[in-house]
TrEMBL record:
Family: Belongs to the peptidase M16 family.
Any single Pfam family the record assigns to this protein: Peptidase_M16
Protein name: Peptidase M16 N-terminal domain-containing protein
UniProt source species: Nematocida ausubeli (strain ATCC PRA-371 / ERTm2) (Nematode killer fungus)
Taxonomic path: Eukaryota, Fungi, Fungi incertae sedis, Microsporidia, Nematocida
Molecular functions per Gene Ontology: metal ion binding
PANTHER family registered for this protein in UniProt: METALLOPROTEASE, MITOCHONDRIAL-PROCESSING PEPTIDASE SUBUNIT ALPHA
Ranges where the Peptidase M16 N-terminal domain occurs: 32-159
Cited InterPro entries: Metalloenz_LuxS/M16, MPP/UQCRC_Complex, Pept_M16_N
Domain of life: Eukaryota
Amino acid sequence: MLSEAPSSIHPILKTVLPNGLSILLKPMAVEGSLVGLVIKGGSIENRRQGYPDGTAHLLEHALIDQISPRIREELHINGKTSNTHVSIYGYSLQSKSNEIAQELLSTVNKPVAEKNITEEMPRVLREIEQVRETSSDHKEKFISAVQKDTAIYNSTILGTEKTLQHITKGHLQKFLNSTLIPGNVLLVGIGNLDIPEILKTANSFQIPKLVPCKDSAASDAQIPGESTKELINKVRIEVAMERFWLGIKFHGKGI
């Protein structure tokens, strides 16, 4: 975990780079660092574009699978998919914040491979089964109280055995292309951050040009909503901490 060192005041860095990548960095006097990449476009956008339920979540797994097992273990690379975002992140108790940023930004620029689906599908199916088996835990009780139908919540994000059968490599790539656009991507970090190096890495990142989609259900690349600057101005560091630390999951063991 992030281990507290003598406290001091550190300003939060919030900016939007010329390449369209949004930045939110909170340096802290701690030993470790946590860095994440958030892409706006979770299960809601997944369904809006007409892709099978579970596409966004499988994309999260595929992005992580593209990182070598050694680096995944060394940098504790994991991910989380929600109704509104696909997030991948890593943490280290050493000074490796920039290495994490490099890996996260690199993997989203790699083309999705068929082997990513083959390797990750069993993990996703296990997650679906685990959710079924733990449907009475506190999390599901809370969701049930709010939403009444937990099956809808779970199937929308995770998908089902049936919907997963219809997800292709093309679906994952097109969905990534449609969401990995300026205004939708946020690089967030907290802890012992090498800010100059992270900014250097972030500035060199090229958000790929959208590959035109022939599918009518998936041709809309833009997601309506607030601008990146408006989003960043509303983000508070407590939310970032909750999303990437308190809400952390181990790859293959949760949503």
